[in-house]
Amino acid sequence: MSNKLKPIQWENGVLKLIDQTRLPTEFIINEYTDYIGVAKAIKDMIVRGAPAIGVTAAYGIVLGAREFRDNSKEVFMQKMNEVCDVLRNTRPTAVNLFWAIDRMYAVLQNNENKEVADIINILEKEANAIYNEDVEINRAIGQFGNSLIHPGDIILTHCNAGALATADFGTALGVIRAAHEAGKNISVFADETRPFLQGARLTAFELQHEGIPVTLITDNMAGHFMKQKKINCVIVGADRITTNGDVANKIGTYSVAVLAKENNIPFYVAAPISTIDFSLEDGEQIPIEERNPQEVTHIAGVQIAPEGIKVANPAFDVTPNKYVTAIITEKGVIYPPYNENILKLKNEK
């Protein structure tokens, strides 16, 4: 992606985030110098996508540390606990958020005997490392995933797991991008992804920008095109994967997976190892975020449903492992049995 489309940029103590709620019709970069603002950006989906949320939270901790730098060491450490708690409470499903915060908090604890100024510098270096590692991880995922793509494949993707959902390059779209760069002449069907329209607003925007052929469809068209044999495989990202291979991803993913199974189409999940929650045995244990009803009753601020209507708005669903053909990580492609093969990665986090 060009520098213009990098969703997260850290410059001289300022965190810059592309406001993804305004794409594709408006390109706005918001600047943050306080952790409360960063927490709100995560919660309001100004920045979204599991890896991007994790990177953003890491920089949020740095901003929190800078805010409280003039306090005593004791007060500073107490305030940093509060900063981490605020960021933890932004969104409950994407495990990368908690992974990044835990990693930053470990750095904080391991260096608590140092001067506050030194701790802040070390935290900033760690956040930069998380950012740079994410870019490298995504490119590795892309290369491993590319081995599963055949020349001329038509790929269906759901939601947005591209550069905008990561530090850069993307997970599911990283695989697509790698196949495109390899000259495989692939093309993409992008589900619009109701209710927040990440497919229509972000995936279509990214792929069009990259010159990758893309056709936008509504969510309920996927089965039709599968039956017409116009889709060769499905690739999606993930917000949390359990040790048995169950996958939490944007609402609607489960439906796509079931349709793919019925039509004998491979269903691939592309995600970094940091998305695997080794503490959970299956998807029933994953907390599912319930979001604002207005996301369903309104589109771009325009009301489309009756006033006062009861609304359910889960942000994610869980796809059971039996529908997942393979999981593409930066360490390679994982196949069933997931209970055995995912646990082999535990020491490679």
Can you offer a commentary on this structure?
The strands form 4 sheets. The protein has a 7-stranded mixed beta sheet. Strands 11-8-9-14 form a 4-stranded mixed beta sheet, covered by helices on one side. The longest helix is centred in the middle third of the chain and has 31 residues. Helices cover 40% and strands 17% of the residues. The protein is built from 11 helices and 16 strands.
Question: Key features?
Answer:
349 residues, alpha/beta, seven-stranded mixed β-sheet, four-stranded mixed β-sheet, 11 helices
Poorly predicted ranges: none
Sequence of secondary-structure elements: EEEHHHHHEHEHEHEEEHEEHEEEEEH
How far is the N terminus from the C terminus?
26 Å
- Gross morphology is globular
Helix content: 25-40%
Rounded mean pLDDT score: 96
Biggest sheet layout: 7 strands, mixed
Q: What is Rg?
A: 20 Å
User: What's the total helix number?
Assistant: 11
Strand fraction: 15-25%
Strand order of the largest sheet: 6-5-4-7-10-15-16
The tally of strands reads: 16
Structural class: alpha/beta
